[in-house]
Amino acid sequence: MKMQSSDFEAILCQARDFAAKAESAESLQEFTVSLIAEKLPHYNWVGFYMLDPADPQMLVLGPFRGAATPHVRIPVTQGICGAAVAQEQTVVVDDVASDPRYLACSLETRSEIVVPIRAGGKVVGEIDIDSHAQAAFGSEDRSFLEECAAVIGTYIESSEAKRSSRPMSDG
Hints:
- This protein is of the alpha+beta class.
- The chain has one domain: GAF domain (Beta-Lactamase, 2-Layer Sandwich), CATH 3.30.450.
- The chain contains 4 helices and 6 strands; from the N terminus they run H-H-E-E-E-H-E-E-E-H.
- A 6-stranded antiparallel sheet has the order 3-2-1-6-5-4, sandwiched between helices.
- The longest helix has 27 residues.
- The radius of gyration is 16 Å and the shape is globular.
């Protein structure tokens, strides 16, 4: 199913509006995965993996929509998700069966795109999308998801800035 750029822009507009009033990064992620899953049914699995603050070499599953996954923690040295963090760039796989990095979650998955989320100049997590169609993700999907990642990253950056600028209490 071919999406129009106006469809992507409408989703981004809603995500940006929600980000302006979101109470937490997790609530923004939850809103975003729900919105994407509802509006883009050919995105069969939509989720976030964030770097574990206690172990920055480990990705931890956050909000997602789609089938349950056994991969709730992924070392950054493994899988397509790990590759996106290690390379600090978007990874698109048109045929997961031909990519030895793919960590099988669903037998129905045929293609995947993983987009890093940056905050404070470093990768802090990623958006992971699977599709049951081969070569499901084109340049418009990539641009759209990179912009979604930027919305999340900007929110995380501004949240961290607000926290660090608060005066310390005398407790």
